[in-house]
Amino acid sequence: MIDLKGEALSDELQNLSSKVLSNDTSIKSIRTGQFKPDVSRIVIDLIGPSKVKVFSLPPIEPYGHRLVIDVYPNNFDPLANLLKQLDGNNKPPEAVPDSTVKPLPKKLLVPQREAIIIAIDPGHGGEDPGAIGAKGTKEKIIVLQIAQKLKALLDKDPDMKAILIRSGDYFVPLGTRVNKARAAKADLFISIHADAFRKKNVSGSSVFALSERGASSAFAKYLANKENAADLIGGVSIDDKEPALARTLLDLSQSATINDSLKLGNHVLKEIKKVNNLHKKYVEQAGFAVLKALDTPSILVETAFISNPGEEKNLRSAAYQNKLANSIYLGIKSYLKTKPSIAFYTEEDF
Ligand SMILES: [Zn+2]
User: Fold this and answer.
1) Is the CB of residue 193 less than 8 Å from the CB of residue 227?
2) What pLDDT is stored for residue 209 in this prediction?
3) Residue 141 phi/psi, 5° resolution?
4) Which of 78, 161, 200, 330 has CB 3.0 to 4.6 Å from 271, enough for a Cys bridge?
5) Which residues contact 10 (CB under 8 A, 6 or more apart)?
6) CA 345 to centroid of ligand 1, rounded, Å
7) pLDDT digits (tens, 9 = 90+) for 299-347
8) Centre of ligand 1 from the C-alpha of residue 131, in Å
9) What is the CA(128)–ligand 1 centre distance, in A?
10) Using the 8-state DSSP alphabet, how is residue 65 labeled?
11) Distance, CA 27 to ligand 1 centroid (Å)?
12) Which domains does the chain have, with CATH numbers?
């Protein structure tokens, strides 16, 4: 039961009860009422014993001050769960009890091992729209469409199998993105985004790999900060994130992976060049949180600038999205032809 002092019962508060889905695994129902003239009361009926975490978040576009209430099943500790997996045991991770995240289909969890597994990670989603263009185009929608096209191309190729880290318009915390890629035993990880900058004339595609040290340019740093804010927008407590990330930086030997990520990035960049101008002619490096916890070659593709009117128009076009998806596909394929030295998972891992 939560009492909000000095708060009249707004439409938003009254509508809370309709936000609870019938298949929610933690919350049975939410009731709201005007308890006193200046006090609104929210009553959350839980399905079973639960752990609850309450914290506030400062304003970040497009939200004002927020009170966040996380409800977990009693026996679930997301941070411990993530750290356990990062300790290198080969057991598949426990299911993430996020009612909005669809579980991976079983057949993808035990794939045929002659196929290389590629995790495609469409950025943002749900409460986090990502960048928004002048025409109102939302990054989260565009990158999902490109990701779906890329998945179709990869799945048609007998050598590859793709999984989508996000397959609908819902929020996925960074930690869950990493968990899903690891659960699927992904050999490569491709995060897809669409850039934005305050100057409308800035344009071009970029490919990023993780940096061990600082960012390769001031712009790369600016961008990494922007993309890393996703958890904040989606309402994830920052306290949870810091130890996990600090830990992954400590116990993964990332140099070899970064080297392969740069190679993969170069192959993709070479193909994207045929479709769009490049923002930078080389693979840039920065500390993207989503790339940090992975020990497989991972890149982040900023397909084009949604803040540039011409590129926004392109990004909305299905034909152009197909071209972009195809260029990423060809880049992956030409990288794999070089028979990279990275240790792909083998049959024995299952
Ligand atoms: Zn983004």
Assistant:
1) yes
2) 87
3) -75, -50
4) 330
5) 40
6) 29
7) 999 999 999 999 999 999 999 999 999 999 999 999 999 877 654 544 4
8) 6
9) 10
10) S
11) 30
12) 2-73 (2.60.40.3500), 78-89+105-349 (3.40.630.40)
